[in-house]
Amino acid sequence: MSNVFQHDILATAADLESATRRVRAFLEATPLVGYDRVGTDQPLCMNGGDVRFMNRIESAVAGNRRLLTALLAELQHDGAIRLDDLAHLPQGYQSKLFHVIAHILDGFFGIDSRFYDLDENSHWLTDGRRRMLARNPEQCWLVRVRAALNGGTDFAGRSERFRI
Predict the structure, then answer these.
(1) What is the reported pLDDT for 152?
(2) Whole-angstrom Cα distance, residue 23 to residue 54?
(3) Quick one: which H or E segment has residue 136?
(4) What are the two backbone dihedrals, phi and then psi, of residue 35, each rounded to the nearest 5 degrees?
(5) Which of 5, 13, 141, 146 could form a disulfide with 18, with the two C-beta atoms 3.0–4.6 Å apart?
């Protein structure tokens, strides 16, 4: 069984080839994700001068927000309603949900990262990155990655409730 993941990764570089090399090096080095296969979808890669650029970023960031909202709802479904409840999460499924939520908020790349800013280590488009995009759009590249991971990735078969 192979799971395929799609990411839009933003990187600063002089050209697409350099941006793609940076993204590949990052994916090879990140300790949190070890894909079996990684490729780029060249026709969907673009720099900040492309008229579709901001729409693609906004769509991908919205995907991150939907995932975060769904994970929080799943945690609430399992009884974590108040912050105090986090201190009593049982180890296992619920603590893993919280762990993934923390990674998204903290800027750690993961298999569910729809958008990731490599330079800002962020799942969001920061104010600093917006300023850079306004000043030097041609140096900001959005690299579409398709990656495959062999084996199961769901949380004990329960991911269907929060998959977006």
Answers:
(1) 56
(2) 19
(3) none
(4) -70, 150
(5) 13
Determine the average pLDDT of the residues in 4-18: 97
Mean pLDDT over each residue of the chain, to the nearest integer: 90
Q: How far apart are CA 99 and CA 111, in angstroms?
A: 13
The C-alpha atoms of residue 33 and residue 48 are separated, in whole angstroms, by 27
DSSP of 4-35, one letter per residue?
EEEEEEEEE-SSHHHHHHHHHHHHHH-SS---
**Domain boundaries in the chain?**
2-161
Mean pLDDT of 78-91: 88
Considering just the CA atoms, what is the radius of gyration of the chain in Å?
17
Q: CA–CA separation, 10 vs 7, rounded Å? A: 10
Q: Is the pLDDT of residue 24 over 50?
A: yes
What is the rounded CA–CA span in Å between residue 142 and residue 71? 26
Residue 101 near residue 75 (C-beta atoms within 8 A): yes
Residues 32-60, mean pLDDT to the nearest whole number: 95
* Element containing residue 156 per DSSP (H, E): none
Burial category of 16 from C-beta neighbours within 10 Å (exposed 0-12, middle 13-18, buried 19 and up):
middle
Please name every residue paired with 122 in a beta bridge, in sequence order, or none if there are none: 117
- Asked whether the predicted pLDDT for residue 60 surpasses 80, the reply is yes
SS3 of 144, please?
Answer: strand
